Amino acid sequence: MTGHAQDHHHQDGHRDPPNFPIQEGRAIWGFLLAFLAYWLSHRFVYVENDPGALARASARGERVEWSSFDKFYKQAPTLFLQPSNHEELIGILREAAASNQTVKVVGSGHSWTPIGLTDGVMLNLDKFNKVLSIDASAKTVTVQAGIRIRDLSAALAAHDPPLALRNTGVLDRQSLAGALATGTHGTGIRYKIMSADVVALELVTAGGNVLRGSRRDPDPAMRDMFEAAVLHLGALGVLTEVSMEVVEAFSVIKRNRLLPLNTVLSTLPALAAGVDHLLVWFIPYTGRAQLMESLRIPPTKVPPTHDWGDSRKHCQNFGSTSGDEASAAQ
């Protein structure tokens, strides 16, 4: 999707795979482990909750269970709620505070930690999903924080001129609030975490107070709040609105190659400096590593595909290939 310079598992479709030396039968275990990781990613990575269904069931008094994307973390909260507006959200927070209940906000569940778990009140902000404004001259976008990254990227791509997020993580299914709260990042030494692109935000505290702060806020207290809230780990309140810097739309071209691990380790700074994005996968027991390198180029219109298992294609998160590994950030 638009502007995603994420890194993922794609083989170069124009190259014959090299032969690996099998030393004492150990190399086969490396490939088995790699295959297992590949299979698990297909099996679990896109398994998500249906927040709307959970909220409706909870409203009927039914016991519901929320889980992380990999089903590793599970929790049955006292209530699972999905507010539609600020008034509902503030009412929920004040009632929870009055009854001394913990409140946690959950999105897609794409975290490797139990950060969203609570036996108190779980909130989901999928209804806080509007694009409020896009300023192409200032290169900023203001959105409700529950928007999914895929939807924000699509809105930026459809803008005239097309725009994009500067950098994201691997998946576009995350809510923007969740991605910021957990320090989501892409790869590449030229790019910071997503939170670094936030210029202003709105936060609702546990007591129902609405705070607004910005990077250059004249009020030092609000600047401090802003600096803490851009990566708040769900501990400061509920992020409801975000303004972010964006960039002109771009595409990426990708190259995958296998190199000796010692070569990669000894030349890693130069390898990272030579591309916009670099991801290195060590293949156990082979002495080899797979490099996934990406360069940003002007936009290329190529139809995206969801089939990232096909070595000739790229998944929607990156766009798609054209000729020799061109990936469109449309």
TrEMBL record:
Residues 317-330 have a biased composition (Polar residues). Pfam families: FAD_binding_4 (PF01565). Residues 302-330 are annotated as: Disordered. InterPro entries: FAD-bd_PCMH, FAD-bd_PCMH-like_sf, FAD-bd_PCMH_sub1, FAD-bd_PCMH_sub2, FAD_lactone_oxidase-like, Oxid_FAD_bind_N, Oxy_OxRdtase_FAD_BS. One of its GO terms (molecular function) is FAD binding. Keywords: Oxidoreductase. Residues 73-249 form the FAD-binding PCMH-type domain. It comes from the Eukaryota. Gene3D superfamilies: 3.30.465.10, Uridine Diphospho-n-acetylenolpyruvylglucosamine Reductase, domain 2. Belongs to the oxygen-dependent FAD-linked oxidoreductase family. This is Oxidoreductase.
